[in-house]
């Protein structure tokens, strides 16, 4: 494995970590943002829904953009926009300013999520083995760091901009410096990008294959289900533990932290599991563990059993999203070429936000109309849908019937620089 690919892997993992920090700093300080701008409870859902909607727009735009410029360039410039938009959220004074900052954050996050997963998929293809879960483990680690920094800011009663400014001052130049080593599809470093305005390699294949992506539908369903589960934990975990299971207010803050830590642990070892047992087996196991986790949460007699359920949810759900991106990119590349791989990842990324938009309102509506215990059974049933589509995660080429991914030597390290 070349030094170029190793540096590309490390720099991209750092990009995932930075994104995790930025997103956690935003979502964990929503009450403080609401207080700073005087956002009413009725208006807050509008602002919160606008971010994933605009992120979907950013992802779709990136699908078209990467036919003209490499994904590495999109990632290089969207990450600073995310960080500056975060600072804008903390430093603004008027409601209109908050709207502009959140709009910029949402659009840039969509471009960022799409482009960094494109690079992750292409790097995994160059490596010839599963490394995608490791990138998402870096994102989980960033989420833990961001949530911890947010706690420090809230505990110290610091102004939002005071909490955000040091983070942006450290991460923005570091992310720009690290972007020098991003590697595009086929092992091309950023220095080898095609000039802006010329079609990137494989874009013709991507355009021709874009209409033939009906096979992507099962993976889009899995992505939606995974984020319904994730948003259920992040938005309802604390309320469920306190209101339904009778925990203290302090203990109610723990489930999300437990979920994030177990997500990090699961993703850290997940690539080894994929290499040993295959993507299909890992996805099936993850779906089953997540379903058991929701069942435990729904039937928990008390807070500590509920905590066990959230632990299982982290271990189960953590493998689904990275493997869905990896499967989409791999199948598109095998069917239509590298341009189609980027198209598939961008389209799949939209369903990240679809699941996020559906999950929280769905559980809330069912909880109010029925019961929150019963509401937890709905994502349990939905996550079991993944079992129906598990075979979609098996490689198309070199399929041995067991879902194991066999690296194709011809693809490893192939690129314009001979890597």
Automatic annotation (TrEMBL):
CDD domains: MFS_MosC_like. It is a multi-pass membrane protein. Keywords: Membrane, Transmembrane, Transmembrane helix. Its main location: membrane. The keyword Transmembrane applies. Residues 399-411 have a biased composition (Basic and acidic residues). It is found in: Cell membrane. Residues 399-419 are annotated as: Disordered. InterPro entries: MFS, MFS_dom, MFS_trans_sf, MFS_Transporter. It comes from the Bacteria. The chain crosses the membrane at residues 12-30, 42-62, 98-119, 131-152, 158-178, 277-298, 304-329, 350-366, 372-390. Residues 215-419 form the Major facilitator superfamily (MFS) profile domain. This is MFS transporter.
């Amino acid at each position: 494995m070349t030094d170029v690919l190793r540096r590309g892997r490390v720099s991209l993992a750092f990009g995932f970590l930075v994104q995790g920090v930025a997103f956690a700093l935003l979502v964990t300080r929503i009450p403080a943002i609401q207080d700073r701008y005087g956002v009413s409870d009725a208006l807050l859902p509008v602002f919160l829904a606008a971010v994933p909607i605009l992120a979907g727009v950013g992802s779709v735009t990136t699908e078209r953009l990467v036919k003209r410029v490499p994904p590495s360039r999109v990632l290089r410039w969207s990450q600073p926009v995310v960080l500056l938009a975060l600072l804008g959220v903390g430093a603004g004074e008027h409601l209109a300013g908050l709207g502009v900052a959140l709009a910029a954050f949402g659009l840039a996050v969509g471009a960022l999520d799409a482009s960094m997963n494109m690079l992750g998929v292409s790097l995994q293809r160059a490596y010839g083995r599963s490394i995608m879960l490791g990138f998402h483990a870096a994102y989980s680690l960033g989420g833990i760091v961001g949530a911890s920094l947010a706690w420090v800011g809230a505990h110290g009663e610091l102004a939002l901009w005071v909490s955000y400014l040091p983070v942006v001052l450290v991460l923005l130049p570091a992310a720009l410096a690290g972007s020098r080593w991003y590697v595009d599809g086929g092992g091309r470093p950023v220095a080898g990008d095609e000039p802006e305005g010329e079609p990137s390699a494989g874009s013709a294949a991507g355009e021709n294959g874009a209409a033939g992506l009906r096979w992507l539908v099962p993976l889009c369903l899995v992505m939606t289900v995974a984020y319904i589960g994730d948003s259920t934990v992040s938005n309802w975990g604390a309320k469920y533990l306190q209101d339904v299971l009778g925990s203290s207010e302090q203990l109610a803050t723990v489930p999300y932290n437990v979920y994030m830590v177990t997500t990090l642990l699961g993703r850290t070892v997940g690539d080894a599991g994929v290499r040993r047992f295959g993507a299909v087996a890992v996805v099936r196991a993850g779906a089953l563990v997540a379903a058991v986790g929701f069942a435990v949460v729904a039937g928990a007699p008390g807070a500590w059993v509920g905590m066990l359920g959230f632990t299982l949810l982290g271990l189960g759900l953590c493998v689904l999203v990275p493997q869905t991106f990896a499967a989409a990119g791999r199948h598109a590349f095998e069917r239509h070429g590298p341009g189609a791989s980027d198209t598939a990842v961008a389209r799949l990324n939209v369903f990240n936000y679809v699941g996020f938009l559906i999950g929280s309102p769905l559980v809330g509506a069912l909880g109010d109309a029925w019961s929150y215990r019963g509401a937890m059974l709905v994502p349990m049933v939905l996550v079991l849908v993944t079992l129906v589509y598990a075979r979609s995660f098996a490689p198309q080429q070199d399929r041995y019937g067991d879902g194991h991914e066999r690296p194709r030597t011809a693809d490893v390290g192939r690129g314009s620089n001979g890597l």
